[in-house]
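Readers of this paper often ask what the protein records in our data store actually look like. This encoding replaces a full spatial description with a residue-level series of whole-number codes. For reference, a complete record is included directly beneath this paragraph.
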Amino acid sequence: MWTSGSGWHIYKLDRANQKWVDTGVPIDNRADTLADTLWDGTHLYIASHVVTASSETVTEPSLPNQPAKLYRYSYSNGTYKLDTGFPTTIATKSSESMTIDKDSTGVIWATWTEVNATATGSYTSSVMVNNSGPDGASWGTPFILPVNNVHPALDDISAVVAFNKKQIGIMWSDQTTGSVWWATHTDGTSPATWKSQPAVQGKGIADDHLNLKSLQADPAGRVYAAVKTSLDETTSDKTEPQLQLLVFKPGTGAFSKPTTISTLADCQTRPQIVLDPDNNKIHAFQTGPSTNVSGCPYAGVSGSIYEKTADMDNPVFGSGRGTPIIQNGASATVNNPTTTKQPVTSASGIVVLASDDSAKRYWFADLAVKSSLPYPVQGPIGDKYAEVSDVVGLPVANEVTNQRFGGSYQEFEHGIITYLPDTGAFAVVYGINTTWKGSGAQDGDLGYPTSDEYSPMPGGVMQDFQFGKISWNAATGSRITKGGIGVTWDNAGGPLSGLGYPTTDEYAPIPGGVMQGFQYGKISWNATTGSHITKGGIGATWDNAGGPASGLGYPTTDEISGLVGGGAKQYFQGGEVVWSPTSGARIVTGGIRSAWVGLGSEGGRLGYPTTGEYSAGNGGVAQDFQGGRITWRSGSVSVAYA
């Protein structure tokens, strides 16, 4: 909000006292700026731009050397702090409006319209776009949206929205063609690659008012747009729409038939919409004449702020102006409602802010959102639920506070959502959820999740916890890795290592140590030797001999490759297992091993072993090598070369 004498500040709503409190954090001190904001769960982004606004009769060209700035704040312990390196510059010219959103790769997108003089002395308006590096830290050069019909009337505007988990959409009004246009871009592809289409067309259909919202957890990936028409200038039929709702469905690639929010008779303007997934509702807010005003003095008249609602799946709004939520009997000039980009819940409620230019005051409404859920979902868990409700289903219990780790969790039909102040809120679902619960869940040795599920390679998923991981794929099921074994597997590359996914949980083959099986090997640990990988022919030979229960005991090294002749070996507590391409893997232990090592091991005259130990009569044992034989009997050895 604007603070006299010092510029724009971040304010906080003190709900207990119904007052806005200045946090003391300044933003932009330029009085001729407006801003769009975005909260992504970690950072607060504020895009502040210098305003020049043309009308149908007056041209206000975009001014040079008037930078639009992106501020990024981190939030901790109740305080916002401007991040190092910010603000960054989005564009260098002024504009009527500017909006931002963040795609799935962390790139911030901004759009606005820019009015510039032409060589013939007239003016043209262009829909402009720019995109940042990760998290808004740097920006490229602004460019005209690379599709058709991007030069609308001088007072038209554009807006941007992230949707369908992996796409960015830009919508703009075009009063010259009576169209509202829509362009889409797939995250991670070239910024020059866009597809466009009309959202709605017709005489008087477009006007320079629009607001976009999406629900990233919506499996259909729908985008909802509130737009204003100019039909008040083309018809006297008061039943025609003044404000309309457009719904884009990525599955069909098309917009549904427009729904009327309010008619010309309602005399409303400046629409804003909010999505309420808990109740499957759209809340629409707009300016209209005060309740004591009949008729319509002119489209866009200020007065009061009204609310109307409709079903998200079948958006039919009731007739009339709706319910007044903000009005001032002493000054009927309340205008310009604004509200959140995020979906709302019963825990968050809805806050709508408006302004009164005549009285120089802000007004707000703090509205309750009724919960239709069997159990309340609120706070950080509620925020996460708004993202993943389509995955976890309905809550089946109340939130529980956990004493051991200082967090909380809530169970749902298909998973659990947890919250830990140090790491945030995460969802644990499906096979991983079942394994985590079986391990003791929130009170167990894994602790709380520190990430959502991710896929390190096709065909499987993993999730990080405070003290380990759980991985799943169709062949192995869901398994826990933790401790020294988990660290060794991680350092080797996890599923991308030669070991693949775990096929067992940890088990103790003999007292004092543990092992875990993987698709292509094992990892074993004990306090003396630490944690080591066994795999391939060496691992199979050790397993067949009895593993840790054999005379070899636990491995003391990982496999050592690149030996003479392309061989490899691994050392164990009681000897070594040696492998060559021609002789395979063989165990060498005891006195025979001592003699072989003394003669140069595999690099000496004897070369690699070709057999294991076998009986040599009279209580002796022997072992054959590529270059001869070693025999042990009664504590002495003899060597016979081939």
About this structure: The helical segments are 379-392, 430-438, 483-492, 536-545, 590-598. The mean pLDDT is 93. The first helix runs from residue 379 to 392.
